[in-house]
Amino acid sequence: MRKFCGFLKIPDKSQFSRFKLNFLDNLNDLFNNLVDVTEEISKEINPFLASILITDTTGFEAYVTENNPKFYQSQLKKAQLLMLKNMLKVKCLRLLILILMQN
Length: 103
Known about the structure:
Elements: H1 2-5, H2 13-45, H3 47-50, H4 69-102
């Protein structure tokens, strides 16, 4: 890909982000036009396969909080704390019921 695009070195993530921000409308137009051009050709070759939508995002890693392992750890800790708090509330309620039943 680097050779095909003529890059001497692989650009940084931020450069790709800036490129996307600057040319988002142009990229959308490009892909929409590609669909217009290739759709009829695909239908002629195989109508059934042309009707199927396939997506593959395995090569893309979105730069979002959810991809950060620390995010998952913090969410897990929050869930564990919530579970402990709920368990404490249940134990306190049981204890209160026992006390009230004895009186």
